[in-house]
Hints:
The chain is α/β, with parallel strands linked by helices. The protein has helices at about 1-10, 100-110, 180-190, 225-235, 255-260, 345-365, 370-380, 400; strands at about 15, 25-30, 55-60, 90-95, 120-125, 165, 210-215, 220-225, 240-245, 265-270, 300-305, 325, 330-335, 340-345, 380, 395, 445-450, 460-465, 475, 485. It has 8 helices and 20 strands.
Amino acid sequence: MKKLLALILSLTMIVVTVPAVRSEASTIYTIQGSSASDDTLVSNQWGLENDGSFTVETQKSGYPGNPFGRRNGFVFGMFSGGWSGNTLTETLQAVEGIDVNAQEAWDIYAEAEETREVIIALIDTGVDYTHEDLKDSIWTNEDEIPNNGIDDDNNGYIDDYYGWNFYNNSNRVYQGSEDEHGTHGAGTIAASIDNGTGVASVAGNANVKIMILKALGGSEGSGTTEAVVEAIKYAEANGASIVNLSLGSTEDDDELYNAIAGSDMLFVVAAGNGDSRTGIGTNNDSTPTYPASYDLDNIISVANISYDGTLDSSSNYGSNSVDLVAPGTYIMSTTPGNDYGYLTGTSMSAPFVSAAVAMVYSYFTDISLADAQEIVLNSVTKLDSLTGKCVTGGLLNVAAALQYDLSELSGEGWSEAELREIEEAPSFGFGNMPGGDFGSMPGGGDYWGRPGDNSWYSPNPGYGRGGRSGGGYGYYYGPGYGFSFSWGYGF
Length: 491
Ligand SMILES: [Ca+2]
Ligand SMILES: [Ca+2]
Ligand SMILES: [Ca+2]
Ligand SMILES: [Ca+2]
């Protein structure tokens, strides 16, 4: 029985990343007058500079199908005149100044006499590294000769020139359309600025490179924590200092915790997109999501602010466990095949912060990563709408971070990360199973079951684990047996 449980455990250690795609059709109006750069789509990027003209008209009427369509260009929600009647039209206008002050940040950074190269490991789906707006910002392993079938740098990975694919266990870090999520995040971090095409980004003109570590894939954008952990080890061994994790699960996992706790890298993590049944963000303080909610010094947890200056309704929050917010609603960025499109979710917010920390760490060449983290968190733009929603109560402000007075730094660091003992889960106990046939498993940790509450869960006392996010299944086990379904949510 124990061996079988171990097998179930290893098969169900799953983390997922799926953007919180909108289910309604929408029209985007952008009439911004002045562009911050000559990138053709930059007027759609309210997160960089927001003059208040960005507007989304939403028409709700059970529009079937994927509102993102083919995502060819920036025309979003291509519903035609054939679709009419019973529509509810809502218009939401942007609020000027709800942005990360990118233009000013670019100008400040450009004046630096000296910068250092910073590598951000993007542990996600793959990335289209041939994309016209990304190809100049992709890390390559200079000690590896590509395509010769030899592990030239002796790091255990053959021909890992662009990173590694831990999902398929190969060196092919771009697999096509399933790699949209990572490609989109990469564009927010470091799409080429002022190259006359596509989008701009936070750190596209900075000394920042993206290491592509594909750990998620398939139509659901899911993967095992084992793959994520291996990717973390690769990142640290091959020169990354910041890890972007736009992924998560309501299921806790000791190995993931230990990998982060034992690392000297900084992890920027999406706070999560709430409950898929209601579409409403949840409180990570009381309903943790992992790894965002781990109480570790080297984690920054990021929530999603909308263009009107309020927390997006789908975003998780937490006055103790979520650090700050960054733009995450209708974010325009790169998608596979030289394409561009909007996505929404905390997955879109985290890359803004990863890029910002990287810029700060690159710009101030003598500070530690913990210092860079402190600078970014202490230089947010505080907003009344965020009171009680996150630790800082503020929105990422990259320009303010680059103007930080270094004499204000506390000097406290976390360079020697320490492992925390993980308490072993009890093998029996009492408690209520969630109500209903399809109740969500409680977030994270161990769950104590009571016999007879829901007979198809388990006839015996035992404990379960939180259901996976992303609409898959959770599991429940104990001295008896059991299995339960859980509606999850994407990131
Ligand atoms: Ca601004
Ligand atoms: Ca190698
Ligand atoms: Ca080679
Ligand atoms: Ca561009």
